[in-house]
Amino acid sequence: MTRARRVARKSTTREPIIQEPEALDPEGFEPEATRRDAGVAESASANRGWWDRNADEYQVEHGTFLGDDRFVWGPEGLDEVEAELLGPPEELKGKDVLEIGAGAAQCSRWLAAQGARPVALDVSHRQLQHALRIGGSFPLVCADAGALPFADGSFDLACSAYGALPFVADPRLVLREVGRVLRPGGRFVFSVTHPIRWAFPDEPGPEGLSVASSYFDRTPYVEQDEEGRAVYVEHHRTLGDRVRDIAVSGFRLVDLVEPEWPAWNTSEWGGWSPLRGNLIPGTAIFVCERD
């Protein structure tokens, strides 16, 4: 599973940036990891707080890999320049594009460079502060993906690279909202942790290669504080669940991409690594179209 809080501790990327929010994460606090139910409201609140507290560390650890204006679909490093999952770059010019779970808006910056008109949306105000720090001439919107603040038919395309979908209790709510704001024939492409990863420990080494739990157990992964309040939540859907979610939400699944680990990528990112990436998929990318 993604468990985004498990970023590598040895940073070789950037110096710390916008570093005042240490008080949000009390020194020495280590949340308890468990599997339990977590509904829509609890998941949204926990993850908004987690990303606000951890945005600085995330951008320090992964900023160089992500770049300021690259469109990377996942830890394998599959780039939209090569993948063209949204369509040929030359056809993006003039398109209205919504990026969901934009973080520091790296993907939106790349889209703008192709002549598209992106809007970068994230639930975390702190992540969007990093988008402001890097810069760009496109709108930044702080909002929940399950209640998009846009009129029907506002966008030609929508995209999400590990944003929102792994962290929401009701992915169909998000998919229906995306379908609502897309124009007829619009495309939505999103990447998530490959569902098979939930059966394996979230470790980059050999210990992450043996099945440790049931692939069919949909119980959310929750990190909670000493009083049992969720501070991070991630939700599991099987591959079949994802396909059904897409179908009942008014989309057609036109492609499912499982990126192979490339030889050039020698880095580790949480539970992603060359060792595991050469044996089992780490990312699933769903290419969907609205009728």
From TrEMBL:
Gene Ontology biological process: methylation
Keyword terms of this UniProt record: Methyltransferase, Transferase
Positions with biased composition (Basic residues): 1-11
Top-rank taxon, per record: Bacteria
Ranges where the Methyltransferase type domain occurs: 98-190
InterPro entries, per the entry: Methyltransf_11, Methyltransf_Superfamily, SAM-dependent_MTases_sf
CDD domains: AdoMet_MTases
Signal sequence annotation: none
GO MF, one example: methyltransferase activity
Region described as Disordered: 1-46
Protein known as: SAM-dependent methyltransferase
Organism: Streptomyces griseochromogenes
